Amino acid sequence: MQTFNRIIYAVYDAAMSPDKWPNVLSQIGELFNAEGAVIIFYENNVPADFIFSENLRNAVQLYLDEEWWRHDIHAQRAIECHLTSGDVFSDYTIATSAEIESLPIYKDFFRRAGFGWLMSGVMLPDLDMLVALSLPRAKWKGEFTAAEMTLLKEIAHHVEQALRISLRISSLEATESTVLAAIDAMDASIYALNENCEIILSNAAGREMLANHFEIMGQHMTAHVKDERPRFDALVAAARGAELRSAPTQSCIFTGADGKRIVAWALPITKSGQGRIGMAGVARTLLLAMPLERNHIVEPVVLRDLFGLTLGEARLASLIGGGVAVRAAASKLGVTEATARVVLKRVFQKLGVNRQAELVLQLSALGGINPVRSQKQKPSPPG
Q: Is 227 exposed, middle or buried (0-12, 13-18, 19+ CB in 10 A)?
């Protein structure tokens, strides 16, 4: 399975080069063992528009030629239910078992297209249409699980942010003002850096985060905490090397003046990307940053990178570390409680803890939170 970092890298690379979206969608489809992935732009009684992975070309053509958009229960009911950005739905979310067995779109279109199940993440609620990232899967592969729906929500969030840039860049002349208007709508902090690590472009969220989590030394951007500055330099250097070897960088954690931490990724800006933002030969690195925690839940990909966990172990550790009970965490991930406890034991071993309380303390330390700690266990921040 493609790593989460590789998918995120590819998504934001496609934001600068929209012609790369079909390949990115193909990678997302492989991640979910689906037949491909498609971004659908749907309005009632109007033929839908698509960005799709190449292996879905025939299915998309069939959908349009035979006007299946008139009978698309998934899109129609998502609109009726007022689903919005961040919502994920699958077949049983919008249809009954009887409808799945009898409706023409399942019995006819799905059968001929080689589909059995569909899962979608809603995006871009500010557009006057339904925009969703959808993944069809063959019947024999089984329906989508709760864990897969959770993962799609994470990925759809990044696709939405990248799509805000890509849609504008692909339809308007690329000028700095156009890009600023697009990226200012994103909640992730964005910085474009030149060869000397100077900020030449940032969005509203980035400017708000800048004073707390970063320093400007002369004109060069670096981490706020002195001991973390070599790590920041290494992150940017690795991104520039990634442009040559086509490899994504790993996530890094940085500490702010208020003690709270962020996770950051650095990506190379290709020559084509430089031209699209009107900075040919100037912009070299795209730095993305966001809070390490969301609603007290640490991003699973960060736990995976820091502690050598699998993505499944990281998702469970993230929930347990955020105070979710084992049974509830198992339900969210679509596994049995017994399975969750087996995975949790592996997490304990890898993190060197023995109890859930110690796990909570260790993950709390990641976010810069200072809970009342046990005298026996004082987890130190990761290096």
A: exposed
Give the relative orientation of helices 311-321 and 326-333 as an angle to the nearest 10 degrees. 140
The residue to which tokens 């965490």 are assigned: 329
SS3 49: strand
pLDDT in tens, 325-378: 888 888 888 778 888 888 889 888 888 888 887 777 777 666 543 333 333 333
Nearest-Å Rg of the Cα atoms of the chain is 22
Number of continuous H segments (helices) and E segments (strands) in the chain: 18, 14
Structure tokens at 247: 């490899």
Q: CA triplet 173, 179, 182: central angle to 5 degrees?
A: 115
* Residue partners of 273: CB distance under 8 A and separation at least 6: 13, 16, 17, 283
Helix-, strand-, coil-residue percentages of the chain, each rounded to 5: 50, 20, 30
Beta bridge partners of 190: 288
CA trace torsion 365, 368, 372, 374 (10° rounding)? 20
The encoded tokens of residue 290 equal 């966001």
Tally the C-alpha atoms within 13 A of residue 229's C-alpha that lie toward its C-beta.
12
Mean pLDDT calculated for residue range 179-196: 71
Strands (E), the chain: 38-43, 46-52, 88-90, 117-123, 130-137, 189-193, 199-202, 214-217, 220-223, 252-255, 261-268, 285-291, 293-294, 297-298
DSSP at 258: T
User: What gap in Å lies between CA 146 and CA 144, rounded to an integer?
Assistant: 7
pLDDT at residue number 371: 34
38-43 sheet: strands from edge to edge: 46-52, 38-43, 130-137, 117-123, 88-90
Please name the helix (run of DSSP H) or strand (run of DSSP E) that holds residue 361, with its range, or none. helix 356-366
Tokens 């954690």 found at: 253
Segments of 230-321 assigned E as strands: 252-255, 261-268, 285-291, 293-294, 297-298
Ranking 108-122, 168-182, 247-261, 279-293 by mean pLDDT, the lowest is: 168-182
Cα dihedral angle (261, 198, 7, 367), rounded to 10 degrees? Answer: 0
Q: How crowded is residue 1: how many other Cβ atoms within 10 Å of its Cβ?
A: 11
d(CA 275, CA 14): 14
